[in-house]
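Recap slide: Class I SAM-dependent methyltransferase, sequence and predicted structure.
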Amino acid sequence: MFSPQGPSLRELAIQALSSVERGYDLLAPRFDHTPFRTADSVLDATADALRPLGPFGQGLDVCCGTGAGMRILKPLCQERVTGVDFSTGMLAQAREAHPDAEWVQADVRALHFAEAFDLAVSFGALGHFLPSERPALFAGVYRALRPGGLFAFPIGAPPPITSGWYWALLGFDLAMRVRNAVWRPPFVMYYRTCPLHAVRDDLTAAGFTVTTAPLTPLGRREDGSPRYRLILARKPARPD
């Protein structure tokens, strides 16, 4: 799962016993050599789905990490592109890789932007937010978008109960719950706390109009349904 340039087991253990922010600061120099970095196939499928909806003006990557999302934001957006994250270490890596973008350190549960962006994206970040925290996250993105702006992110279908992945993800989440019950500071990272119906409900409550698009290049499950969908949350346009 990890390349030779990736973190050692000892480094992963230290990260797991840290806070989320400190853990990612430690992991940042090696993050792109781990399976936690969003795969290029997911980024490319997202770009293909968004391209007919553009071009866009200014773009925002929410929880940008080391800046992988710039792979799609730069070609899709005609103006400034910005990444926001709370990890100093991750932002340092992003800034080095993409010096032409703007990078902002902030807690995305309290975004300070107001009607500044036409497109916002996010990749692999929802598991770092408890369900009770999603409304604040989505409300902040809603404020950050201009009227008519779009918030897009991929979401995977849950693996079937007969799949090894189902039990692996269940085991990981259970282990994290035990870890957070007995160790401080907590490290919030869960894989099973953001089902499609709950995410859709929270986005709708924030004011978005929500649709989805299948990311067919990423394959289909045995029942024919797509393995991934792209959430398309649109902020209503201002009436003329």
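The CA atoms of residues 4 and 209 lie 44 Å apart.
Residues 38-158+195-234 form a domain with the Rossmann fold fold (CATH 3.40.50.150).
(End of recap.)
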